[in-house]
Amino acid sequence: MSSAPDTWRPSPRELERREIRRTLRRRSILVSTVATVLVLGGLLIGTVSSPGWASVKATFFSWDDAKAAFPSIWHAFWTYNVKLFLIGEVLILILALAVAVLRQSRSPVLLPLRIIAVIYTDLFRGIPTILLVFMLAFGMPALNLQGVTNSLFFWGLVALVLSYGAYVAEVIRAGIESVHPSQIASADALGLSRVQAMRYVVVPQGIRRVIPPLLNDFVSLQKDTALVGAAGVFDALFAARDYANYQFNFTPYVVVAGYFVVLTIPLARFTDHLQHRAMERERQGAR
Amino acid sequence: MLVALGCAPQESSTATDTSTDQTPAECAHGKTLTDGTLTIATDSPAYDPWFRDNDPSNGKGYESAVAYAVAKQLGFDATAVTWVKESFNKSYAPGDKDFDFDINQISITPARAKVVTFSDGYYTAAQALIALKDSKVASATSVADLKDDKLGAQTGTTSLTAIREDIQPSTEPLVFDDTNVAKQALLNHQVDAIVADLPTAFYITAAQIKSATVVGQFQQQSGSPEQFGMLFQKNNALVDCVNQALTNLKSDGTLDAIEKKWLSQTVNVPVLQ
Amino acid sequence: MSEALLEVTDLRKSYGDKVVLRDIDLRVRTHDVICLIGSSGSGKSTLLRCLNLLEQIDDGVIEFEGREISDPRIDPRAVRSRVGMVFQAYNLFPHLTVLDNCTLAPRRVHGVTKGEAEQRARDLLARFGLADQADKHPDRMSGGQQQRAALVRALCTQPTLLLLDEITAALDPELVGEVLTIVRELAEQGTTMILATHEMAFARDVATAVCFLDEGRILEQGPPAEIFSRPREERTRRFLSRVLPPA
Questions:
Q1: Which of B93, B111, B175 sits opposite A234 (nearest CB)?
Q2: Which chains are adjacent to chain B, needing at least 3 Cβ pairs under 8 Å?
């Protein structure tokens, strides 16, 4: 190969091929556009021309009702739902990490805690979250224990943290176990203790690997904050339901749905982006 | 004359005095969901004193009695009445209903009347305040006394509106899905007092939470007193017949008798101004 | 004869029913460079892992610096802080820079201060041509650079004995040389090493003794000149004829 400047120009045959490719591409764009229009248009027309559409429109999409319900939903959303998932997520990560690391430990002293950790993850992945909210928010205050708060918000938060903590603990555990055993061997060979190996080598890698599923669980949590309404916490969904029950109009539900969507879409997109980047790095590092 | 309902359904003939062209029974002919059967809906659980033992079909309880009285007027004896369960949320949803009417302590409001059709009112509801006997709320004598208290009421009810519009406490009220949850919150000291309609309040304090008392009742501040009405699908044809029946029951004293039998404790309750 | 740094007597190791090592006797003096050769599955890696207490032996005695380290009461960490090991692959911690990789053990296990650990690491990295890689992450380096860095990491803990488990086996051929150069330098400096390797030419040049493992036994051991030119056993001859380039 010469080291002279590259003087290549595309040959006539190559130019022909490029023209053909352009035509093919244009054709496929046309086909996909037509297909999309037909399908979506068909759905839209089908919905709007159905016999019950007028009453559905008035019940679910009434602008006046949306305006009237908006302030209380907005207030409820920021006072409860947002606080719940911001505080909750932090607590969940702490609890889940503790449980996951505990299950990996082999110290004899920690055996009773390890057994509890296993029971915890099995039990709390089995109980529906809404049931947990109900039982804790009403059961705990009913026990009338000394010094224990009977705030519904507190127990609703506890229920969410316990429920999600179990799932997230399993996700983190999967991440920890996916770290190549040679990494642990390397850590051992360097003389690191089990705890040190966990702290400096295994857990940092394990968590990085499971960031997409962790973010998924976070998005899920954001929506599940609405479950505290079962306990009577007046969150956005409950506010919507209250308005609906009083005015016999469902539009506030659509408003609340809109809120949640706007909240979760950026996070969902961010998760996709991170996942994409992680895969790129994986492919690159494979030597 | 009509036999007072209260025990097992009985077969009896209906002698109606009507001043209109048709009897309610003639009016109702062919207008029910199923020919020959009157389908009535209510929520589950069906609370006292509106129903008894969570069984609407036993004819006991104010609304159960009223329902059977109206049914009789329409020409359906007790065996021709079928009860279905319908949750409150679903009862006003758009679409065809699977009942002829729903009787569930539903207050008539103009906004609601745009979405469903109501019968005439069959009971005028007053709101009452319930608190535990030993709490400071129990000695309240006016609305102003309640400003700093934590109150609670069932979602979507006029009780809740009463708190928000008439009492306007400084802290947000606690909202409950149903009365059971409200009662639990009262016992757990998560609220200082709850607001409910007067008959329900009496039942709670008399039979369910013995340590609670009815502190007082509220005078409606604005507009006309709220009434309970039966809920029908919008523009249902049966409602006129039912209204006729109700008129009959009111004029011949049956409705009063039923109220006296099932809601007799709702007198002598102090009014909170 | 100087006292042995490491003495292995009658070592036996099996996984379930399969006996992987038997009747292993080995004597390593300070400054020795022992090369373990043999086919795959002959037990070379397992032997190294036993010496490091990464595996528990089924019989025999291992003595290191005069003490029996195969005693169950011995803390393996104490042993491993004096014996360094480098594996075939996946050595470095991908989430840390090379520098952090090298300073982790000195700081956390040996109590070396951060400044001192970093200085030591940078010196060693510079000596082996990796000065500009110090702040990079392993995934940005070639395989040869990664293995060299892994060697530096093992050296940062200042071990008495270095175990190398076929560290060039997973590398592209053109990267093998740069790694072997370092090993040769270390040998010339007097570092005591036991290495499992396929690189016969290297073994012939650098080793003070060669052990041929066959089906879990040390079939022959001796100075490289002897083993490579005048092997006693038939199987040794057959193995060498397969792996040595034709003379």
A1: B175
A2: A
Structure tokens at B106: 């539903």
| Fold of the domain spanning C1-82+161-247 | Rossmann fold (3.40.50)
A253 beta partners? none
pLDDT digits (tens, 9 = 90+) for B119-150: 999 998 788 889 988 888 888 888 888 888 88
Which residues, 6+ apart, have CB-to-CB distance to C184 below 8 Å? C202, C205, C206
Report the CATH architecture of A65-285. Answer: Orthogonal Bundle (1.10)
Contact B160, A247 (CB under 8 A): no
Q: Which residues of C touch A191 (CB under 8 A)?
A: 77, 80-81, 105, 109-110, 157
Tokens standing for residue B225: 């007193």
Q: Do chains A and B touch (3 or more CB pairs under 8 A)?
A: yes
B126-218 CATH, one of 3.40.718.10, 3.40.980.10, 2.60.40.1080, 3.40.190.10? 3.40.190.10
Neighboring chain A residues of B185 at a CB cutoff of 8 Å: 232
Q: Place B8 in a pLDDT band, splitting at 50, 70 and 90.
A: very low
The DSSP call for residue A47 is H
For residue B250, give the amino acid letter. K
8 A C-beta contact, residue A270 and residue B136: no
Q: Quote the CA–CA distance of A244 and B93 in Å, as a whole number.
A: 10
Structure ipTM: 0.86
Q: Which two tokens stand for residue C43?
A: 């037990």
